[in-house]
Task: inverse folding
């Protein structure tokens, strides 16, 4: 009897609880809508910033893809790898994890990660006019397709899978190692976890790409260099350097670049302004390739490096553009060399020592 008496009360209690839960859901929805309304302008700004960064990354990727495609049109092994697996694109960054360059590195990470949504499609151009050979982009934010038209004669020599319009994938990876004096401050007093996370994440992507290539393409199809270190050993070396706590471990960049070249990939190097750090890195890499792959004598290594880094002035230079300042400077002479980063660091320390000695000398003089 007491159960029969409690049944309507329990039913009524359940109805009251459901009514309270429904009112709570509506109240929380109203609060969330209010917060969303306040954050809409910020969301638009973030999306606009992301679109701007992605547009620059996409332009670089499309340029690199087209150049690599034209360079490998006669390489059947490369074309086979291209349509079976895809193309790896390595972005080498020299940004520091200190001050404003942290934001640049965060933007770069997101922009390069968004390149995973990009597919390439090779089409046959209607005519051989240069305007007909310009790549075009179509699609939306979640998927983009870059169409690369080729002249009719070249298009007919491609494999059937590519001529049929099979989408070609891209595997973008980013490795960052800060090398300037701001990175020294970040390593001693700041936080470099962003750089460590980026390198670890992209190492896993590069390792997965190699596994896919080794499963679908015979390793004999990959290019051979004079340095016959196995790619698997290079990956193990890269993985060891990524997890090793070492200041300014540029070995990460060297090994990653070697792996990318061995995998028929394309590479990009950048820093804050693509002027000092980038030029030092690119010229050093060019000389290393000449030494390792094109029989450049070690005795001429430094001379070739200085020649690449020199800027010879021809005639009178009335204007000189400074990429760092973003302004035109009149009657500024062209510098003879891009001075190494290490020399700048030494010079700054010497300046401090000079100031201290000057102060001591003045105090001793007037006492």
Result:
């Amino acid at each position: 009897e007491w159960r029969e008496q409690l049944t309507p009360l329990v039913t009524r209690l359940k109805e009251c609880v459901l009514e309270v839960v429904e009112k709570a859901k509506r109240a929380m929805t109203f609060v969330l809508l209010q917060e969303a309304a306040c954050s809409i302008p910020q969301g638009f700004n973030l999306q606009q910033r992301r679109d701007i960064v992605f547009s620059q990354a996409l332009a670089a990727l499309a340029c690199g893809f087209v150049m690599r495609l034209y360079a490998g049109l006669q390489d059947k092994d490369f074309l086979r790898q291209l349509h079976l697996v895809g193309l790896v694109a390595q972005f080498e960054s020299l940004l520091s994890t200190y001050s404003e360059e942290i934001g640049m590195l965060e933007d770069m990470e997101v922009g390069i990660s968004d390149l995973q949504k990009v597919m390439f499609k090779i089409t046959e151009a209607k005519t051989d006019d240069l305007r007909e050979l310009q790549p075009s982009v179509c699609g939306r934010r979640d998927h983009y397709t870059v169409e690369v038209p080729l002249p009719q004669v070249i298009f007919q020599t491609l494999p059937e899978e590519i001529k049929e319009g099979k989408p070609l994938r891209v595997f973008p990876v980013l490795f960052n190692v800060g090398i300037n004096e701001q990175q020294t401050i970040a390593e001693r007093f700041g936080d470099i976890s962003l750089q460590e996370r980026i390198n670890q994440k992209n190492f896993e992507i590069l390792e997965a790409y190699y596994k896919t290539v080794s499963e679908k393409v015979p390793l004999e199809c990959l290019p051979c260099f004079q340095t016959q270190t196995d790619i698997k050993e290079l990956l193990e070396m890269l993985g060891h350097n990524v997890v090793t706590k070492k200041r300014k471990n540029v070995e990460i960049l060297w090994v990653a670049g070697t792996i990318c070249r061995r995998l028929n990939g394309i590479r990009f190097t950048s820093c804050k302004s693509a002027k000092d750090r980038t030029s030092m890195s690119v010229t050093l890499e060019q000389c290393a390739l000449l030494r390792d792959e094109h029989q450049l004598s070690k005795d001429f290594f430094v001379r070739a490096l200085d020649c690449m880094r020199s800027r010879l002035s021809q005639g009178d230079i009335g204007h000189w553009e400074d990429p760092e300042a973003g302004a035109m400077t009149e009657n500024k002479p062209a510098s003879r060399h891009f001075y190494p980063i290490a020399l700048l660091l030494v010079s700054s320390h010497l300046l401090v020592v000079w100031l201290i000695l000057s102060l001591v000398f003045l105090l001793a003089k007037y006492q």
